[in-house]
């Protein structure tokens, strides 16, 4: 657990035991960052800050969708940062924020064991460095929360941008690809589509959360509502970009599936023509062979007649298939 005080003098780091005194200071506010939930963090939120039991429960367990709760002295919001994993999997890095008038608490996780814990701290560490370097001078906890939300929105946008960079190459493969083994390319297309849909869904849900927060006039001050409205607009733009890229990818995937299906249909038609041509030949040969028990010598006239009939039937079938446009 990291305890920081943000004031007009900048950012300073303190011990957990100083938290009560820091909350009583007239200048600035306190920022408590919890990289991993533990009993100490739960005691701080429950006894020190008087957080609602629902907030404690949300911080303790994993939340698969963004959420927002508002109370008399603080409001709580959960957002997710996307992180690309192997085989098209997208990890959801949860960030819980408890925003009060004099304090901000950020809680990370729980995390998938396969995720590097440093990935979950990317946004908070970036904002902390900006404050420490003097490039960002927030005057309220809500302003830091706004900066964190903007960083999450940029990461959403970055994921969509990373996926979009792969689309032109995939489109080129679709236009010039080998249809004899379509499984690999189709798998790549569907994995990219999954990444886009996940990012788009996360952005849309986060937009709804901040839009709801902006409407809570009873619990959220007017200035903080402005931050929420701006964040809602940011995530709405990310959602719109994701929709555009998804539609483009859907079109590329449908084109490739259509070309593969057409190729298979043509192949089946040609196989049907071959079967239709050989079927009467096989039938005549079978009947003729069953009804002739034994021959002392070759009956040339009979052989020529049978072969001529076979060729005539095959030629008629080929001509009929040609008129139907099958080859």
Task: Summarize this entry quickly.
With 327 residues, the chain is of the alpha+beta class.
Q: Return Rg in Å.
A: 34 Å
Strand order of the largest sheet: 2-1-3-7-6-5-4
The ordered string of helix (H) and strand (E) elements is: EEHEHHEEEEHHHHHH
Q: Average pLDDT, to the nearest integer?
A: 82
The number of helical elements comes to 9
Query: Which runs of at least 5 residues are low in confidence (pLDDT < 50)?
Result: none
CATH A-level architecture of the largest domain: 2-Layer Sandwich
The amount of helix comes to 55-70%
Total beta strands: 7
Question: What gross morphology would you assign?
Answer: rod-shaped
Integer tally of domains: 2
List keywords for this structure.
alpha+beta, single chain, CorA_cytoplasmic_dom, 327 residues, 9 helices, transport, 15% strand, 7-stranded mixed beta sheet, rod-shaped, CorA_TM1_TM2, Beta Polymerase, domain 2
SSE diagram, text form:
Blueprint: E1 2-7, E2 10-14, H1 19-23, E3 29-34, H2 39-48, H3 53-60, E4 67-70, E5 74-84, E6 90-100, E7 103-108, H4 117-120, H5 122-133, H6 141-176, H7 183-214, H8 222-291, H9 300-323
Parallel strand pairs: 3-7
Antiparallel strand pairs: 1-2, 1-3, 4-5, 5-6, 6-7
Descriptive overview:
The chain is α+β, with helices and mostly antiparallel strands and 327 residues long. The chain has 2 domains: 2-260, Beta Polymerase, domain 2 (2-Layer Sandwich), CATH 3.30.460.20; 271-323. Helix content is 61%, strand content 15%. The chain has helices at residues 19-23, 39-48, 53-60, 117-120, 122-133, 141-176, 183-214, 222-291, 300-323; strands at residues 2-7, 10-14, 29-34, 67-70, 74-84, 90-100, 103-108. It has a 7-stranded mixed β-sheet, sandwiched between helices. A hairpin with a 5-residue loop joins strand 5 and strand 6. The radius of gyration is 34 Å and the shape is rod-shaped. The mean pLDDT is 82.
């Amino acid at each position: 657990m990291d305890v920081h005080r943000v004031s007009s003098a900048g950012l300073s780091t303190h011990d957990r035991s100083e938290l009560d005194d820091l909350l009583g200071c007239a200048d600035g506010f306190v920022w408590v960052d919890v990289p991993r939930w533990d009993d100490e963090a739960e005691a701080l939120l429950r006894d020190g800050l008087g957080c609602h039991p629902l907030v404690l429960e949300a911080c303790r367990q994993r939340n698969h969708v963004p959420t927002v709760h508002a109370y008399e002295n603080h409001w709580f919001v959960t957002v997710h940062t996307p992180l690309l994993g192997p085989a098209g999997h997208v990890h959801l890095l949860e960030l819980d924020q408890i925003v009060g008038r004099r304090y901000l608490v950020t809680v990370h996780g729980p995390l998938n064991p396969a995720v590097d814990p440093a990935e979950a701290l990317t946004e908070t560490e970036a904002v902390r460095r900006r404050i420490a370097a003097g490039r960002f001078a927030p005057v309220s906890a809500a302003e830091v929360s706004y900066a964190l939300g903007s960083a999450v929105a940029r990461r959403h946008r970055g994921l969509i941008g990373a996926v979009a960079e792969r689309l032109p190459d995939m489109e080129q493969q679709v236009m010039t690809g080998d249809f004899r083994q379509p499984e690999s390319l189709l798998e790549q297309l569907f994995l990219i589509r999954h990444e886009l849909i996940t990012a788009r869904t996360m952005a849309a849900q986060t937009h709804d959360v901040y839009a709801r927060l902006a409407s809570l006039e009873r619990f959220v001050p007017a200035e903080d509502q402005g931050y929420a409205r701006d964040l809602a607009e940011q995530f709405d733009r990310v959602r719109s970009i994701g929709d555009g890229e998804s539609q483009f990818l859907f079109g590329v995937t449908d084109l490739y599936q259509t070309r593969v299906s057409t190729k298979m249909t043509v192949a089946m038609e040609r196989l049907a023509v071959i079967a239709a041509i050989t079927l009467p030949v096989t039938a005549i040969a079978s009947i003729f062979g069953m009804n002739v028990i034994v021959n002392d010598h070759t009956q040339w006239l009979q052989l020529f007649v049978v072969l001529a009939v076979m060729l005539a039937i095959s030629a008629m079938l080929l001509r009929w298939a040609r008129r139907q446009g099958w080859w």
